[in-house]
Predict the 3D structure of the following.
Amino acid sequence: MNVQTGTRGRMRVFAHALAFLSLGLSGLYRFRVATPFGAILALPKVLASALAPFVGATGVMSAALALCTRSPLAAVAGFLGAWASVRHVLQVTAPHDGFEQAFGPDLQRKIASQRREGILNRRWSCRMPPSPEPRWERDIIFHTILTRKEGDARPLCCDVWQPPDEVMPSGLGVIYLHGSAWHVGDKDLLTRPLFRHLAGQGHVVMDVAYRLYPETDILGMVHDVRHAIAWAKRHAGCYGVHPERIVLGGGSAGGHLALLAAYTPGHPDLTPDDLRDVELSVRGVFAHYGATDMRAVIEHARRVLPDEPPRSLQMIISMVEAVLGDAVTGIDWRSFSAANMVGHPLGGTPERVPEMYDLVSPITHASGDCPPTLLLQGEHDFIMPVEATRQLHQKLVEMGARAILVTFPQTTHGFDLFLPQVSPVAQAATYDIDRFLAWLV
């Protein structure tokens, strides 16, 4: 009898632990980062979203165990955690009509049958289908910058992902610009699953390492993107890519640079002298939570990021460093105040250099001549304001450009980078990228 009582007691404790773990993690779905202290929960929120199916399964398991041990509180907590997780998965993977509005109702028929073979068939599955192993060339120099020191040169490198031998090339090349906050990071930054998946469809991916602040400013970063486009077009034939089928893509600051470069192919203030006579237009552009209006970005950041990070932020800084490793070690995190993160690469605040904020904001250059655009962003993004992205999309549509905006409920910055093989929101975003690129082929 004592043994049975002890076993039931342990089961009851276990049920309570699982139930409140599920409930606590599912509670992060509704949480919005609105203060410096709240930024501590930004990474746990991303991970909770990526693991939502497992959080829900944990809730169901704990509720069942609680019913067996007659623990009503744990049963209710487990049920609520499971319900919130299922609801979250359904919301972030819900279908939308963005493609039909932008490209017409016959999108599926326009996608060649050979391209359908590699794209995702549903917005989410328990595990993303595996892709064949691509060919991967690392650290290819696509441009060399002569520095002020005589005889000194700064190479710019990229990685090139090519389709496996058994996959028919699509003729489309994707130039991808990693997230960086314009200050940190490098190519090959948690993007291998996406690149492997795209190469499995026959696309070639050029993963670019562009210069960051303080080595250069925003204009220098855009120049690096221009040189990447020029190199990709010049070497297109070597990789089975059609030079007229170059697509730009990126995340966060990389998404901003992709949009800006795509919308301003011949802008004299955004093009280096050696490329003034080079054709730099692209077939299309997609951006994960890219900055669309730099004034809106700094105003949004001022509400969340302090001028001097408090000690509480050291927790999330440590977590980010643990995940990203060498890409962010040795960084002065004080540069990530609102004024410094945006202001330094632009040369000052909007009050001091308003013309620069206008020049490097993609929304300034939105017109009917802009290439087809896919915008992907979370409703709870605490770095890039979703309202500014909506305004860009609205302006593009009003001016006759083909543009698609997909906003994911209860989702914050970086949703595509963590556990994409199982993450519902990451897979839903990839599903949309698949169809966008397939239409551009």
Remarks:
- The first helix runs from residue 2 to 27.
- Strands lie at 135-146, 153-162, 173-177, 204-208, 246-251, 284-288, 373-378, 403-408.
- The longest strand covers residues 135-146.
- The CA atoms of residues 33 and 382 lie 6 Å apart.
